[in-house]
Every structure is written in structure tokens, then in C-alpha cells.
Amino acid sequence: MIAGFRKTGILPVDKSQVLSRLPQSATSGSGTGTRTAATVELVSQSFIEHLTAARHGSNDKGVEHARRRKVLGFVENFSRAMHACELCMVTQDDMQRHFRECELQSRTPELYDKQVKDLATDAMSVSDCGLKRPSVLGALPYYHPVCNDATDIMHDLFEGVLPLETKLFVCHLLFEVKCITLSELNNRIKVADFGQLGGRSKPSALLESHIKSMDGKLGQRSAQMVACFVFCLCWLLMLCTKLILRN
Question: Is 176 in a helix, a strand, or coil?
Fold first, then answer.
């Protein structure tokens, strides 16, 4: 374990241990390789930005998500990229129609490497593949950018799927079933007991402008959205009981 800490530059702290494992390029007139200044600068700046955000917080929504995509070589802006997914070649339009993995072309290491070569020779554009640059981690013998399975649960789920699904559910209750009013719903959120941990992330009052908007936003932070979604189960149970008693 001590040897592992030393080799990764954790104890004692030594950034050269990490930088020495990054891709190298041959220097003219020398038999040894040296790290390019661009590689060192990219890693150093990303690490400094990460430490700054961890210490002071970050007001930029999705900044961590964009940094991870940048390191992996993908287009940083997920919403504007034609092929935005890191796991498959689905387009923005296909995302609205195809929901099964078997219908989509998966990103493989072979496909990724081919697209990187095509980008370098201008045989393919960024919009054709969703890649912007080769990843600085791609030369590591034990890692490939396509094999990165750590999806961003906060942006993909808590600020992506959950707000949209909750909005559809609330719209159905308020404007189709009409079994509860928005005022009554907000009053129940206000007086609900979310427990010791949930109380710190209590959902804000739901605004009609957010509910009727065409986007997937509900005006909640990710932690608030989790509590709001769990509370939806309580709404459903309460409303079912209310309808049964009414009938």
C-alpha cells in the first residue's frame, strides 16, 4: 500500500509521479521522450480548477461534467453536440425516439481510435462523431476513454431524468386528473417532514411557470429533486387513498 501511494504521488505528494505516466512525444535529436507542454498544461489546469471548485464551490452548472468530457476528448457542451453520448453514437433526434440499447451503435475502442485518426486527417468532422480531440489518457496501457463507465448521476439523473418525469407526473395530477391544486401541493411540501437529512434539501415551492414550461426543469437543485421525487410516492399513495374514499 505504501509503495502504491508513493507510485501515484499521494504520499509523499509528488506530481511528477503522475505526469511521468502521461503520453510522451519524441523530441528531435534525442532518444528519450518528453511530455508535451500542452498535455502538462491541460492536466495541471484541470487539477487546479478542481481544487478551486472543491474549496470555494462552483456557480457554473455542469462545469464538472464538461471538464470530464474534455479530458475524455468529447465535445464539452452536451446539449449542442450532434453525437453527445459517450457510450453510443446516438444523435439528439434519435434520443427522442429510440430507448433500447440494441437499436443504437455502441462506442468501441476500435471505433474511437478510428474516429480520432479521421479527425486528424480531416476525413471526419466534430459533428460526425462527437469527438473534438484525442484524450490525453488514451495512451495509457491500462485505460481507454470509451471504457469510462462513471456516468454523471447528478446531471444525468437528478437534474435530467427526475425533473422531467416529476414534471409530467405533476402536470397529470394538476391539469388532467385535477385531484389536487397547486396551492394544496405546495402546502403539503411545506409541512412535510423530510427527516433530519432531507430537511436540509427540502424542495422549493413548485411554480406554475416551471410546470407549464416546455423544458425539463422544475426549479430545484439536484438534492432537492431527489427529495421531491421520493415525496412523489407519498403524493401517489395519498391521492389513491383520497380517490378510493371519494368513490
Answer: helix
Question: Side chain identity at 64, as an amino acid letter?
Answer: E
pLDDT at 110: 93
* pTM of this prediction exceeds 0.90: no
Q: How many CA atoms lie within 13 A of 133 on its CB side?
A: 12
Q: Which three cell numbers stand for residue 70?
A: 474534455
Distances in Å between the alpha carbon of 37 and those of 19, 25, 114, 126, 233? 11, 10, 25, 24, 53
Per-block mean pLDDT, blocks of 10 residues, the chain (247 long): 75 77 50 52 63 57 71 83 88 86 90 92 91 85 80 79 87 84 86 73 87 85 84 73 71
C-alpha cell at 158: 437528478
Contact 173, 235 (CB under 8 A): yes
Residues with Cβ within 8 Å of residue 188, at least 6 apart in sequence = 235, 238
Strand partners, 88: 106
